[in-house]
Structure formats: C-alpha cells, structure tokens
Amino acid sequence: MSRPESTSRRRVLATLGTGIAAAAAGCLGSNSLGGQPIYEEGTVSGINASNVSNRSAAQMSAAAALAQQQPSDSVTPLDPLSLRSHEFVVESGYLGSTIQGTVENTGSNRIQAVEVRTRVYDDDGTMLGRYFASTGDLNAGSTWEFQVIVLESPSVVASYDIAVLGTPS
Fold first, then answer.
1. C-beta atoms surrounding 83 within 10 Å
2. With the CA atoms of 121, 122, 128 and 131 taken in that order, what torsion angle do they form, in degrees rounded to the nearest 10?
3. Which InterPro entries match (predicted)?
4. CB 150 within 8 A of CB 90
5. Strands of the sheet with 111-121, listed across from one edge
6. What does the pLDDT look like over 90-130, one tens digit per residue?
7. pLDDT band at 69, cuts 50/70/90?
8. Positive or negative, the Cα torsion across 31, 70, 96, 42?
C-alpha cells in the first residue's frame, strides 16, 4: 500500500515541477526578458605593443583587487539596455588593459542592476579570461560609462566580445 502512495507523490511533484517550469517560461516568453546574452565582437587595434609596459607586481595586485571576475546570477538580457559604444583601451598605471564604453537604458523604467560581460581572446581565438563591470539603478533614458579592467597584457589580447545584461525594477 505504501508503493501507490509513493508513486502518486512522485507524480504530484513531477506535475508541480513541470507546472512551475512552464509558468516561468511563460513569464519569460516576451522578447524583453530572459534568454542567453548576445555578444558583440570587439577588435583590438592601434595598440603598439612595444610602447606598452606590463603592470608591476604592485599594479597587478591593485588591478586584481578591482577587476570583477565573477558574473551576477541575477541579471538577464533586457531589451531596454543598449550597448552604445565600446573599445579596447590601454590606460597607464595599474589599470592597464581595459574595455570602456557606454550603456543606455532606452526604456521607460529604472533598471535595478546592470552588468557588462566581456571575454578576451588571443590571436588563436583561445579565451584568455572573462571580466565584468556593474552598476546599480540606471534610470530610464540615462547612460552609464563603464570601464572593465582586464588582467591580461595588452600584447596578448587580439579581440574581445561584450554583452550587457540587467535586472528590471
């Protein structure tokens, strides 16, 4: 008699799990929320590697302390977030390799959290690392100028790709 009870309990749990998954999928059904990030390609050009010095140990320590290397689990692609510009820039001092640009909230509501995700590659197309920048409370119609600190030497970075994600209010 315990076997049928166990089987029906499993069916209820399976049905409940399927229902919750379907409900969540229905909530994410519009093109404004959810899904995988869409990455844009970026090029690294105009960098004269002979004129670029590597970070010292102290500068690398400072850069590593400030570089974001873990993505947020609470962000998703959002239609109102637009990546307006981006470029690979070598800064002096501890910053070194960076990816800088502008994100705009083109929507009519505040975005609670915004994250820029980048992946950098060498000449062979091997991914060297993933780096991030984030901010909170991007109001409707506002822009955010971001700076992603990349811990790779400018001489080994050949290309990158970039995406923007957010958490709606």
1. 17
2. -40
3. FxLYD_dom (IPR047676), TAT_signal (IPR006311)
4. no
5. 40-43, 159-168, 111-121, 127-138
6. 998 888 899 999 999 999 999 999 999 999 999 999 999 99
7. confident
8. negative
Range of lowest pLDDT (48-52, 123-127, 146-150) = 48-52
Contacts of 94 (CB under 8 A, 6+ apart): 55, 58, 59, 60, 62, 63, 66
Domain 32-168 grouped into CATH 2.60.40: yes
Which tokens in the block code for residue 120?
Answer: 């950098």
Q: Is the pTM of this model over 0.90?
A: no
What does the alpha-carbon distance between residue 151 and residue 141 come to, in Å, rounded to a whole number?
Answer: 32
Q: Interior CA angle at 138 toward 132 and 143, to 5°?
A: 80
Share of the chain above pLDDT 90, in %: 55
Burial 47-67 (b: 16+ CB within 10 A, else e): beeeeeeebeeebbebbeeeb
For 91, counting Cβ atoms within 10 Å of its Cβ (0-12 exposed, 13-18 middle, 19+ buried), the class is middle
Distance, in Å, from the CA atom of 32 to the CA atom of 20, rounded to the nearest integer, reads 20
